[in-house]
Amino acid sequence: MLNKLLEYMKTVLLRRVLVQLVIRFSISTFLVGVSLESAAVDDVSNRDVDRGYELATETDKRDSGFGDILATGVIINKSASGDVNQKVFEMITVEVEDDGDRRFVKVSEPSSLRGTMFLSHAHALKSDDVWVMLPRTSRMRRVATQDKTGRFLSSELTLEDISPWEIEKYSYRYIKDDKCGQGSANNCHVIENTPAYRFSGYTRQIEYLDSDILQPRKIEYYGLNGELMKYLEFSQYKQVGLRYWRPMFMKMTNVVTGAVSEIHWDDYKVSTGYKAKDLSPTNLARLSR
């Protein structure tokens, strides 16, 4: 009887040990699986970030070396209720070595706004320097760092939107390859651009980058509430200065208000002789002529 009892206790104990071993093995296997799955997700995420930055770097490389570009633009603003206004302006962009590019805008029409000027010195992570001069004051006003969300010529574009793009201004994440839009014949790399600088009016941008010319076909802008605010479409690309692609038509659509701003570009000129020192606040008197 005693031997049978001892044998029974051994069997029970052995079963308990086996159950514990099975449980420990199952938990270890589960944790390893979770760890491997997490590592795989991290690896994919890192590859997407690397790919996004790689595309941004290649875009910057292809678009560098122009020196300066001058163009004439006509912006037409259309409200949802049908109101329309039009402005004509000249834009000059100058490359700056070891810093952000500089951009100057001068309005020529209508006559009531003739002499209105915008000057922007772009930087990487430091806030851009922006100045505005209105004809009624004939005095240059520096725009506050946190006030770059002001509208450009009463349009759906802001001062932030027209500031020169700098690669360090954003972090990048590749999303997928897709058509550049519904019914589009062009193929695009879809990339998420997240502002890396303070006081941006956006939490992120979704950019559709043409895979052939590496220029944007569409940019979606998401506001501080995370919702889509507006989107900018680029079309009718033309090669200027032998190698630089520029759109002849741009259209910004505000999805909240239904308002639209169109920009028709004309007469691009590359390497006209402008230097960085020409686009400075102290030189605006000469630029205004």
Can you characterise this structure?
The chain has helices at 2-62, 159-162, 284-287; strands spanning 68-78, 84-94, 102-109, 117-121, 129-134, 139-142, 170-179, 187-195, 204-210, 216-222, 228-240, 244-254, 260-270. It is α+β, with helices and mostly antiparallel strands and 289 residues long. The protein has one domain (65-287): outer membrane lipoprotein receptor (LolB), chain A (Clam), CATH 2.50.20. Strands 6-5-4-3-2-1-13-12-11-10-9-8-7 form a 13-stranded antiparallel beta sheet. It is globular, with a radius of gyration of 28 Å. The model has no long low-confidence stretch (mean pLDDT 86).
Keywords:
globular; single chain; alpha+beta; 39% strand; 3 helices; 289 residues; outer membrane lipoprotein receptor (LolB), chain A
